[in-house]
Amino acid sequence: DAGVIQSPRHEVTEMGQEVTLRCKLISGHNSLFWYRQTMMRGLELLIYFNNNVPIDDSGMPEDRFSAKMPNASFSTLKIQPSEPRDSAVYFCASSTGGVRDAFFGQGTRLTVV
Amino acid sequence: TQLLEQSPQFLSIQEGENLTVYCNSSSVFSSLQWYRQEPGEGPVLLVTVVTGGEVKKLKRLTFQFGDARKDSSLHITAAQPGDTGLYLCAGYSGGSNYKLTFGKGTLLTVNP
User: Fold this and answer.
1) Which of A19, B32, B74, B104 is within CB 3.0–4.6 Å of A42 for a Cys-Cys bond?
2) Closest chain A CA to residue B4
3) Which residues of B touch A41 (CB under 8 A)?
C-alpha cells in the first residue's frame, strides 16, 4: 500500500526562480498538512486542508508561498520567487481526520542558492 | 506560544547502552506523541500518550507521560544501531484537531 508520495525528493534552484513541490495523499485520506523543517525552527505547520479546502494557512511565511489541492488526492506547494532562506525540508502528511493520525511523506529537500 | 524543549539535542552512544531523552514544557497537553525520523525520511509515529503518569512500552522503548501532562521521557534499553535517528516529541492541546507543537528533536547515534 503506497504511502504519501512527494516529488521531487531533492530540488536545487537559483534565487528568484519558481519552485513547485508535489504531494500525493494516501488513498481515502481527506486531510492534508504541509510542514517545513529546519534546524533552527524544527517542524512548522505551513497550511492545513480538509476535503480540499484550506482551513488554516496562518503558517505560510509570506505571499511568495501558495498551496493548492486541485483534487482530493493531490496537492502542490509553490514558492515564487524563491529565496535562500526558503532552504529547508518540506513535508506533506495526510490523514483521515486530525494531525495525530497523519502519515508523513519522505520530504523534499529544497536548496535555494 | 507553547514550546516543547527536548534534551539532549545530540546523543552518541555505543551499542548496548541505555539512554533517556526528555521532552519538557511549561504548558499542559492533552496528549503527547513521539516520532522517530530516519535520515532522508519523514517522521514515523511511535506512540501516543494521553493520561498523566501513563507508561507505554514498545519493545525496548519505554515512554512516560508526566503526571501534570507537561513533560515526557523516552527510555531505550540496550540501544542498537537501528535505533539511530531523530526523536521528536509533539504535543496536542485539544481544540483544533490539526495543530501539533513539535520539539526540535534529539539526534541519537548508536555506534556498533
Assistant:
1) B104
2) A42
3) 104
